[in-house]
Amino acid sequence: MTFEEARARFPVLERFAYLNAGSFGPLARPTLEAMEARARADQEHGRAGRAWFEDVVALRSRIRERLARLIEAPAERIALTSSTTDGCNIVVSGLDLGPDDEVVTTDSEHPGLLLPLHVSGARVRVAEVAARPTARALDAILSCVTPRTRLLALSHVLWTTGQIMPVHELKRESGLPVLVDGAQSVGAIPATVGELDYYTVSCQKWLCGPDPLGALYVRDPEQLRIALPSYFAQKSIELDGAFVPVEGAARFDSGWRAPPALAGLEAALDDLPGWRFERAAEITDRCRSALAAEHELIGEPGQGTLVSFVPPGEPADTAGRLYDAGVIVRELPGTGWLRASCGWWTSEWDIERLVTGLGR
């Protein structure tokens, strides 16, 4: 599949320079068609009966296997969730943290991770990494570790600056459990779980799947308490609610996921080009170079596929003006920045439209 063929699969790109996969990725025609076909089948044949239910279970299994391959993990260590936030809540609530415990995170995390950490009751120590060279992030985070630290929780790619955090090095150096928010990594850069303990996946961003869909990798499911059980947590249950958990990470499945959305995700995962990471890195570098001539860039080159910059006017107004000009970017609240998300589908013409729109 050539770049032109791959790009032509996304209807939205016929109208917009779509630079917002950090929030929602574009939906391709095969994804939309799979969703429509599944919804139509459910309407015509009814959402009931053993055959229908077994078909949905098989679909869930295929999704689990495909997502596992993406991050080089065993399928039995993958839970199906609604989002990365969902996954963070499952992990943090299951660790039973308390006021005598500490968690180390960074100063550039999404609320989807920060909020579960805050309500856990543990003390949250924040490492300053966003205003420093990425090469110093490892030492900055490790310097916050104390004998009370029970968890390191951070993004693989920071959603504000695009910096890639040394998650694998942190695991090796600290030996502590590590929870990784993979919202801005999986599908954008090569991402593998390695020796990490917990890794969340967002399916509606860089994987271009429907929402709300996500996944959670759990290295040792037996060691994490099931704090938020759904129907899928149990293989047998007593009248008082006592239950025997299913094997593997499926016990953490956060509930029913709509079959049309799962069908769309399956189509999206089957449609990923093998050259996607190289193309995304290349077009990100071009975006940075094009913006650097007139705008202050945030972060450093050679990181993730997010390019944050200081716009010429008020960020929300500038984002609105760009939208009217056919360019979709994200305002980052409270920062004064705009963020362009560069995917493997992004073209040089998209970048040119962004630069031209900013100059108007």
Describe the structure.
With 360 residues, this protein is an alpha/beta fold. The chain has 2 domains: 111 residues, Aspartate Aminotransferase, domain 1 (Alpha-Beta Complex); 233 residues, Type I PLP-dependent aspartate aminotransferase-like (Major domain) (Aspartate Aminotransferase, domain 2, 3-Layer(aba) Sandwich). 36% of the residues lie in helices and 17% in strands. The chain has a 7-stranded mixed β-sheet, with helices on both faces. Strand 9 and strand 10 form a beta hairpin. Helix 2 packs antiparallel against helix 8, helix 4 runs parallel beside helix 5 and helix 9 runs parallel beside helix 11. The longest helix is centred in the N-terminal third of the chain and has 21 residues. The radius of gyration is 21 Å and the shape is globular. 45% of the residues are buried. The mean pLDDT is 97.
Q: What's the short story on this structure?
A:
Helices cover 36% and strands 17% of the residues.
Notable characteristics:
single chain; 360 residues; alpha/beta; Aspartate Aminotransferase, domain 1; Aspartate Aminotransferase, domain 2; 2 domains; seven-stranded mixed sheet; four-stranded antiparallel sheet; 11 helices; 36% helix
